[in-house]
């Protein structure tokens, strides 16, 4: 019995004249994600993308799990195609879902007739298949409102397809259709979640991380690279630009007031991310900032840090509370790594009483004591580039 994967489209179907370009990008993303599981024929028809094994050696389970994490797919199901004849549909349901039908206590059949030349309506087909299955499995109770098992029948252009309920998939838009951005990746809980949320909107990401050896350890660096690895199943291939930050922090401590240290440090992070974005042709920066979470994330402080960038700063977590962020972190698999007790550069030289209501002009004046351009240039020249596949 030759199973295939049916990928149901979400927002993509609303894209009007641009819809085909979204579908092509989505199929390209699926093709790349499933390549390691074998050779698949991937094509789109009637608001569904079909992932069909081209060889017997294909790992359909592996491809199915990979497709669930591809943005642009709202639901996914393993199905079996059969001829568009009611007897063939019934036989396929008995064979493919026989074990589930035996184990269930109640059921219903739900049909969709995309091919209007099929001689039975959707309701007629559901009633006929349901009646025959009820006779074959007399222990089953028909329950059209809350069935334990729903048998789905889809009569489409090429064939009929029988499957159990579809599972929710990643949703969102295909990566690559929302432009490119540089995401500031720390070792905390928030920034990986922010990266995931922007990737869900179709944004292709480049990652930048700020390391401060000897104040931060090799374990802290490896923790961030592990977070990037955990994001790859969602975000696709990633490149992490590890930028040395200790010289900048030492110069700020030497030349600037302590209560403004974190703010000026954040401004340098924005400058470095902005420089990288321009170098790579990206259109925005992404941060994990959340309004009011810490002193550097008050409304005034965010305005001061954003002033150092020339590109838009996207903050997908801005109105979320920590519980919501943690829930997403657990869902995408980054939470356990994020809470590992390794320091990052943001905890180095933390002021005892950080400024919460700063003024842009005041901070700009303080930065005149620093060789801003030289510090940024040296940091960018000495960065490490790590590719994560």
TrEMBL record:
It holds the Pfam family ThiI_fer. ATP binds at residues 184-185, 209-210, 266, 288, 297. Pathway: Cofactor biosynthesis; thiamine diphosphate biosynthesis. SMART domains: THUMP. GO terms for biological process: thiamine biosynthetic process; thiamine diphosphate biosynthetic process; thiazole biosynthetic process; tRNA 4-thiouridine biosynthesis. Residues 61-166 form the THUMP domain. Its EC number is 2.8.1.4. It is found in: Cytoplasm. Belongs to the ThiI family. Catalyzes the ATP-dependent transfer of a sulfur to tRNA to produce 4-thiouridine in position 8 of tRNAs, which functions as a near-UV photosensor. Also catalyzes the transfer of sulfur to the sulfur carrier protein ThiS, forming ThiS-thiocarboxylate. This is a step in the synthesis of thiazole, in the thiamine biosynthesis pathway. The sulfur is donated as persulfide by IscS. This is Probable tRNA sulfurtransferase. The gene is thiI.
């Amino acid at each position: 019995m030759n199973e295939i994967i049916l990928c149901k489209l979400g927002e993509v179907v609303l894209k009007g004249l641009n819809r085909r370009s979204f579908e092509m990008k989505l199929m390209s993303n699926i093709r790349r994600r499933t390549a390691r599981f074998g050779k698949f024929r991937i094509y789109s028809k009637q608001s569904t993308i079909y992932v069909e094994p081209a060889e017997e050696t294909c790992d359909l389970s592996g491809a199915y799990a990979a497709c669930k994490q591809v943005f642009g797919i709202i639901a996914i199901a393993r199905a079996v195609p059969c001829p568009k004849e009611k007897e063939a549909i019934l036989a396929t349901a008995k064979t493919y879902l026989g074990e589930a039908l035996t184990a269930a206590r109640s059921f219903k059949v739900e049909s969709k007739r995309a091919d209007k030349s099929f001689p039975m309506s959707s309701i007629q087909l559901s009633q006929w298949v349901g009646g025959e299955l009820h006779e074959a499995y007399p222990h089953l109770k028909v329950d059209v409102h809350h069935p334990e098992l729903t048998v789905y029948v889809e009569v489409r252009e090429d064939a009929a397809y029988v499957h159990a309920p579809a599972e929710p998939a990643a949703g969102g838009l295909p990566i690559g259709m929302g432009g490119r951005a540089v995401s500031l990746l720390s070792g905390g809980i928030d920034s990986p979640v922010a990266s995931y949320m922007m990737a869900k909107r179709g944004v292709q990401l480049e990652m930048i991380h700020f390391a401060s050896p000897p104040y931060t350890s090799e374990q802290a660096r490896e923790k961030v690279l592990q977070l990037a690895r955990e994001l790859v199943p969602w975000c696709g291939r990633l490149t992490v630009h590890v930028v040395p930050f200790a010289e900048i922090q030492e110069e700020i401590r030497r030349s600037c007031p302590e209560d403004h240290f974190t703010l000026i440090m954040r401004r340098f992070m924005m400058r470095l991310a902005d420089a990288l974005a321009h170098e790579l042709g990206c259109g925005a920066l992404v941060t994990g900032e959340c309004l009011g979470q810490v002193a550097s994330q008050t409304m005034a402080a965010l305005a001061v840090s954003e002033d150092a960038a020339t590109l838009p700063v996207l903050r997908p977590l801005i109105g979320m509370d920590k519980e919501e962020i943690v829930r997403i972190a657990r869902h995408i698999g980054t939470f356990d790594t994020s809470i590992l007790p390794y320091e990052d550069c943001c905890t180095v030289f933390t002021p005892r009483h950080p400024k919460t209501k700063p003024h842009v002009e005041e901070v700009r004046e303080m930065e005149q004591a620093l060789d801003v351009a030289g510090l940024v240039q040296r940091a960018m020249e000495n960065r490490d580039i790590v590719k994560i596949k």
